[in-house]
Amino acid sequence: MIEKMLEGIEVRLNLDYFTHQKAYNQLADKIVYTGPIDKFYNYEFGILEYRSLRFEHETLPIENYQGNAVVNYTEKDIPFTRIIEHKHFEFGHQSQTIITREYPEQWTVDKDAYYPINDERNNEIYKKYKEKADQERQFIFGGRLAEYKYFDMHIVIESALNLVKNEFSN
Fold first, then answer.
1. Is the dihedral of CA 128, 130, 134, 135 positive or negative?
2. What pLDDT, on a 0 to 100 scale, did the predictor assign at position 151?
3. What integer pLDDT is reported at residue 161 of this predicted model?
4. Measured distance CA(129)–CA(47) in Å, rounded
5. What's the N-to-C CA distance of the chain in angstroms?
6. 159 and 147 in contact (C-beta within 8 Å)?
7. What is the largest CA-CA distance in the chain?
8. Which of 120, 147, 116, 118 is closest to 40 using CA atoms?
9. What's the rounded Cα separation, in Å, for the pair 148 and 117?
10. What was the pLDDT predicted at 83?
11. Distance of alpha carbon 154 from alpha carbon 158, whole angstroms
């Protein structure tokens, strides 16, 4: 589906937008930016905070570990928040399985940002970035980092479709 959507469109991956920002900005009249909105504006109003994650992968010599792709753990005495058993996404029948434990981790700007911290301080900072972003004509800001909110996958798709609808109805 994604390949069909991008058919005929040049795709560049694994590039740091900020390294050659001016050159990249000249490539198109419209750019969809999905990175951290505070970084886009060089942290002008402050750094938005996130919760990060650490992943530990393990290969187990058993066919099935938990019978499900994802099991969430909410007990305070368990240090990880979920276990992912990857084969269940593809209905695999391998003789061994791979699991990933997901641990919450303190975030710093050099780590991946996963979950926004929606407290008063961060929401006020984001509001300033959002007001500035709303004035942009070349950029469309979308996704969890650019919109500073957590999205479940079905909401991500809905949000992306709404961005496109809004862009082409103007």
1. positive
2. 80
3. 80
4. 11
5. 26
6. yes
7. 56
8. 147
9. 9
10. 97
11. 6
Residue owning tokens 């949000």: 159
On whether the CB atoms of residues 69 and 51 are closer than 8 A, the answer is no
Alpha helices in the chain (DSSP H): 2-5, 21-25, 37-40, 87-90, 120-133, 153-168
Q: What are the residue ranges in the chain where pLDDT is below 70?
A: 170
54: helix, strand or coil: strand
d(CA 157, CA 144): 12
Q: How confident is the model at residue 170, as a pLDDT?
A: 64
Q: What is the pTM of this model?
A: 0.78
Adjacent-strand bridge partners of 85: 99
Q: Which amino acid is at 167?
A: E
Structure tokens given for 164: 């496109």
DSSP 24-85: HHTT-S-EEE-S-HHHHTTTTT-PPPEEEEEEEEEEESSS-SSSSSEEE---TTSS-SEEEE
Contacts (Cβ under 8 Å, ≥6 apart) of 53: 81, 102, 103, 104, 105, 112, 114
Contact 25, 139 (CB under 8 A): no
DSSP state of 47: P
Q: Domain 2-49+110-168: state its class.
A: alpha beta
